């Protein structure tokens, strides 16, 4: 074999061989969009707090910028994964615990819309229809997958399955102020129906079956999110505080107390992306508390909101440090253990 032919073969083999980038990208999880949800939830909760303490506004604006950059980075990375190795994305879709995280993409778009609504309504007006349409498509696709011929095991069920339902109740929070009233009621109704169904299934799994694996324990906090967000969406649509609104926000507080009792079980658990489940529900609870203070005219809810916001801030800073460390150490670029 001539030297030129040998060089050509080597070049061909190099071209066919997967690069480190493509190998790492195929393991980048869709669950990473939970980071985007957590950061945007933090920014929105800080923005709601800034309505009561004006000095928090620069912090809220800064967090919004950080959340925007993080979302673009995560979306770009996962988009590159889809372009270079779509089979890896399809494989994630086939895994029930990961399937529920795909609507976190559309939820992130909706949160960006909410974040820019107060100061840049033109941006919100562009992003909201995109997020709402994507949320509708992903919700129908995920639920169709759930009710297909595939059989699920009880151990595959966790509060993370609430994510598709949570996305639907987020839609009206920005949709109502933007004038999409009928669509907002449609999404809220669908979200509430599937929340009730999934809540029944999840509680059955928690009470009558083996305990969840340790790495999924933080997802218990997700129980707080649906009623906290549904309260905000409902108030945005009806414009007042009625008994049903009180039931929703009270349910969020009940689940928060239930999760608080479970916190000792979280000790000594190793860090995983599932720990980001702590962030967005706490943000939803803080924001709901600030909204409750506004519509009920009771300062006690502001106090609750700032207490939850303080806990949320400590938690998100710690999560960011651990996540950045994991990225630098290559944890999220390798197969999940």
UniProtKB/TrEMBL annotation:
It is found in: Membrane. One of its GO terms (cellular component) is plasma membrane. It comes from the Bacteria. The keyword Hydrolase does not apply. It is a multi-pass membrane protein. The chain crosses the membrane at residues 30-50, 56-78, 99-117, 123-147, 159-179, 185-204, 216-237, 243-261, 273-293, 299-321. GO terms for molecular function: monoatomic cation efflux transmembrane transporter activity. The keyword Membrane applies. Keywords: Membrane, Transmembrane, Transmembrane helix. PANTHER family: DEP DOMAIN-CONTAINING PROTEIN, TELLURITE RESISTANCE PROTEIN TEHA. This is Tellurite resistance protein. It comes from Cognatishimia maritima. The lineage of its organism: Bacteria, Pseudomonadati, Pseudomonadota, Alphaproteobacteria, Rhodobacterales.
């Amino acid at each position: 074999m001539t030297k030129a032919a040998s060089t050509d073969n080597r070049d061909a083999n190099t071209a066919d061989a997967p690069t480190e980038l493509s190998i790492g990208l195929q393991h980048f999880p869709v669950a990473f969009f939970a980071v985007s949800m957590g950061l945007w939830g933090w920014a929105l909760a800080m923005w709601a707090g800034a309505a009561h303490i004006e000095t928090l506004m620069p912090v809220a604006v800064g967090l919004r910028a950080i959340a925007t950059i993080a979302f673009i980075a995560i979306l770009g990375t996962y988009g590159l994964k889809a372009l270079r190795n779509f089979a890896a994305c399809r494989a994630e879709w086939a895994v029930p615990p990961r399937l529920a995280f795909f609507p976190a993409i559309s939820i992130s778009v909706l949160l960006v819309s909410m974040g820019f609504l107060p100061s840049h309504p033109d941006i919100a007006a562009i992003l909201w229809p995109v997020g709402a349409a994507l949320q509708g498509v992903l919700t129908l696709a995920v639920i169709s997958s759930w009710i297909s011929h595939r059989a699920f095991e009880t151990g595959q069920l966790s509060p993370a399955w609430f994510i598709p339902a949570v996305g639907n109740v987020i839609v009206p929070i920005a949709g109502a102020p933007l004038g999409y009233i009928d669509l907002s009621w449609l999404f809220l109704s669908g979200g509430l129906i599937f929340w009730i169904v999934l809540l029944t299934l999840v509680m059955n799994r928690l009470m009558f079956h083996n305990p969840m694996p340790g790495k999924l324990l933080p997802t218990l906090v997700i129980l707080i999110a649906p009623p906290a967000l549904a309260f905000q969406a409902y108030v945005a649509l009806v414009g007042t505080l009625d008994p049903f609104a009180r039931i929703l926000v009270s349910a969020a507080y009940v689940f928060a107390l239930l999760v608080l009792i479970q916190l000792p079980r979280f000790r000594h658990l190793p860090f995983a992306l599932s720990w980001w489940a702590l962030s967005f529900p706490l943000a939803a609870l803080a924001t709901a508390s600030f909204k409750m203070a506004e519509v009920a005219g009771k300062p006690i809810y502001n106090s609750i909101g700032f207490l939850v916001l303080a806990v949320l801030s400590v938690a998100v800073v710690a999560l960011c440090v651990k996540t950045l460390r994991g990225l630098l150490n290559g944890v999220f670029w390798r197969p999940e253990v």
